[in-house]
Write a structure and sequence with these properties.
It is a single chain. By secondary structure, the protein is of the alpha+beta class. The chain has a single domain, classed as Trna Endonuclease, Chain: A, domain 1 (3-Layer(aba) Sandwich), CATH 3.40.1350. The chain has four helices and five strands; from the N terminus they run H-H-H-E-E-E-H-E-E. The longest helix is centred in the first third of the chain and has 18 residues.
Amino acid sequence: MEANERIKEIIYPKLSYKLMGALFKVHNKLGSSYKEKYYQRAIEEELRLQKVPFEKEKMISIGYGNKGIGRYYLDFVIDRKIVLEIKAVPFFKKDYLDQVLTYLDAAKLKLGIVANFRTKRLTYRRLVNPRVKVY
């Protein structure tokens, strides 16, 4: 596969690149020993500094028919396009990835990123919602 083909496969390449740069910067400055809420606060500040549009703790309603049955709170929604879920755990569990896929469906968004700050190096996973088209 050529480089141009790989670039075409990346969803929101410029925004993703900028977001990942912010996440790596936060991890490089803080390291891997803080609680999740401190990483969230640092990410919020870094996104503001880089002028990346975001919503923090975005509420998504869950419905069944015409009835509201609950809600999710997403750590971040970046530029109304990307769900960003923050973790500070020793390792990823499948449940975390499933959680983000559920968030993507509920929010009707295409791309989710789960970033884990508890590891020596920032670890992350990109998750694509196959049920949403990007134009």
